[in-house]
Amino acid sequence: MASLVSDYDENTDRAVTELHKEFETFFVTLKTQTDQPDCNYDNHKTFYIESAVSVSSIEIRASAIDKNEKTVEQIGLLKQSMNTLQQLHELSCLSEGQIESLQSSFNSMFTAILRLELAKKRGS
Questions:
Q1: Which is nearest to 15 in space by CA: 45, 46, 57?
Q2: Rg of the chain's alpha carbons, rounded to an integer?
Q3: What confidence tens digit (pLDDT) does each residue in 9-65 have?
Q4: Residue 43 to residue 69: CA distance in whole angstroms
Q5: Which distant-in-sequence residues (6+ apart) come within 8 Å of 47 by Cβ?
Q6: What DSSP string describes 9-77?
Q7: Is 94 buried (19+), middle (13-18) or exposed (0-12) by CB count in 10 A?
Q8: Model pTM greater than 0.85?
Q9: Per-residue pLDDT at 122
Q10: DSSP assignment, residue 100?
């Protein structure tokens, strides 16, 4: 039977899981800095640079796999959300409420990407 989606890719699974850990660390760190000068964007530029590189790498790999359009689409949405997060942070420090909302949104995106990849593994 012909498959409509690509096979499971362990490298994508691992890379997305690792990126999720980096985002969790970022959000947890930001929550401790909401009322301190350390919260500003300049103190977190490295996170944004490294995350952009990671997402680009994941996107390139996913794009190179046949029948992987849905995963590529989800990674594209993640990339757009990262750009929005960066623009928001460049404007000012994020409040605890903003951080919690953003963390929840990013967790949903990471969950969706991983859920799709794991469904491929099960063949569903």
A1: 57
A2: 16
A3: 999 999 999 999 999 999 999 999 998 889 999 999 999 999 999 999 999 999 999
A4: 35
A5: 22, 26
A6: -HHHHHHHHHHHHHHHHHHHHHHT-TTSGGGSGGGGHHHHHHHHHHHHHHHHHHHTSTT-HHHHHHHHH
A7: buried
A8: yes
A9: 86
A10: H
Grouping H, G, I as helix, E, B as strand and the rest as coil, residue 90 is: helix
Average pLDDT across the chain, whole number = 95
Q: Which residue has the tokens 């929550």?
A: 31
Residue type, 90: E
For residues 84 and 22, the answer to whether their CB atoms sit within 8 Å is no
pLDDT at residue 2 tops 70: no
